[in-house]
Amino acid sequence: MTKQSAVVKEIIKDLGAEDAQIVLNAIKKSRKDGNAETLRAILNTLKDTDEPSVEAAVIEFLFDLKDEESVAVLIEAIQDNEMSYYHNFLVSSFWQAAIDGSAYLEVFVRAAIKGEYMTTLEALTVVENFDSAYSQSELTEFEADINEAVEEEENEDKKTLLISLGDVVRNLPIEGE
Question: What's the pTM value of the predicted model, to 2 decimals?
Fold first, then answer.
């Protein structure tokens, strides 16, 4: 077993500890020695904890991510209904940490449509920062989905955000143009 894998295993074990201080130390160690595996364990800790200091430490950790390896793990978590309480933090981690989620436009559009107001706000902020080009058919489909969500949305504030998201999607660069 390599030193790295031993450290990762120790971090993952400590993330499951009952003692909040051990968990907090494991989160701290993850900043230096973590990887996608430890990020998954951290997100599971977030899902399972009721300790405010651990929750705050995980959210702070998410906002400091710099590794593109974390993108796929975060996308999985955004698509996990069991993590819905934290979707706004997971989505906002993309712009807070300046990591590129542009390959997952559909995930952010779906999160905005299905999510609470804050998730919609965070998804709008993330999508506004995309500079990737997309196919015309993709953008047309997403815009239609957003327009349908606007029609069905009862919360006026969220409806306003969805209208803004539709405008942003409509103005994203088109492949080949």
Answer: 0.92
